[in-house]
Amino acid sequence: MLICMATFEHLPVRVGGLAEAVTSLGEALGKKEDVIIFMPAHGLLQKEEGDLPLPVQKYCDFRIYVGERIYPVSVYCTERKGTRLFLLSNEVLDFPQVYAPRDMFLQKMVHFSKAVPGLINIMLKKEQRKPDVIHINDWHCVFAGSLAKKYFKIPFVFTIHRLCHERISVQELNEVNLSELVDSRYLEGDMFNIEKFGAHVCDFLTTVSYSYLNEEWRTFFSTFEGKTTYVWNGADHEFWNPESLKHAHMPRKERRKLLLEENGLEDGVLFFNVGRLDAAQKGIDILLQAFEMIMRDEVSGGSEVKENLRLILLGSGDHFLENEARRLQHEYAQNMRAIISYLGREATREYYGAADFCLIPSNFEPFGLVQLEAMCMGCIPIGSRVGGINDTVLDLHDYPERGTGRLVPPRNAKALARAMVEMVQIALRDDAGMLEKMRREGREHVINKFNWDKAADRYILVYKNKATIKLPFVNYAEPY
In CATH terms, is domain 242-449 a member of 3.40.630.10? Predict the structure, then answer.
């Protein structure tokens, strides 16, 4: 089977979890089948040769028609762990920012959508075979998948990593010669619903966790019952491995003390949050409120908890939240640091490997990789009981003998603060080694239940129309 995946993110181009998911899934599928991946070049080819992660070779040139202009497209190919990555390049596809500004992103989406069938046409001649399936990752690539299906009769799988309810105007589609896609079923006034169109046109529709499928069932997925299912993501537990840490030989407490010293803090019980500083999805406002509640004694914990609690935020995003984090860092300088930056996977691994707990207070989370990465590194997650977090974290209260973390209601700062206080108190009096047991259980849980090989096996069932969905709600401790 030749599997073609289309995506706007693949390592080293990373904006969020999509890059990790597509890269790891492609590698896992590549152990079993032939895999090719299409992505806009996003400026990678303009880097100095020594800065490119892998050597690239010219594959082909062709032209596309957009609006009233003809644009050249060049395609370069590289290989990564058994998969071929094709980078599609021209004056639009090479724009370095992936999703911004919106006008340029929409142009890039259109160019990519037209370039994908052009590349498939050339591959038919050069390699004398066509993909058995085209797997589209998120709405950015829906038009590419629909055109590949229309012109080459390639089955089209659409994975929604997060519903965005994105729309484009009919006028914009007409202006770029995509009026052939317009159908009144997908119109909302003069706007064209891209995800609804993709879900109707695709042969199989998937999302990334069973809980998220249920949460969005009535509002979206139920319309496509019969071709809709879920495939849990996994974690790259070979990369997220405590043995890969700089100070792997040190006890965890010593690594924590060293990392806190590097950030100008005295040793204590360390909570860590990494990712986009965002209120709508990630609930960072809830996290900051919970921390401030503890510091202001609005949640009973006592002076011992306040004196020992440490919080490090690593990420950037909403400017208001960035400033709130800075304000709290200034007000509680002995307890908190806000690192408004992205430090890369290796640096993030060091933080996971030192922190006691990872905070994931999402309001909704289709799947989320942070909790899996944290558990792989022995960093106990405290997250909201939503989506993939609910599917993957075994709450200590629900599973006293094999718990891997704590789950709290979403959008509830007081509940999060109480869970944080509870875990600080356990950490300060953990004579029985409960937390160490949870760390071991967490890594084993991820490796056994949520690895990319399992995800690849299930996607292959989807490609062959053999995947089923289990109702009522499955026991998330036993995937599939």
Answer: no
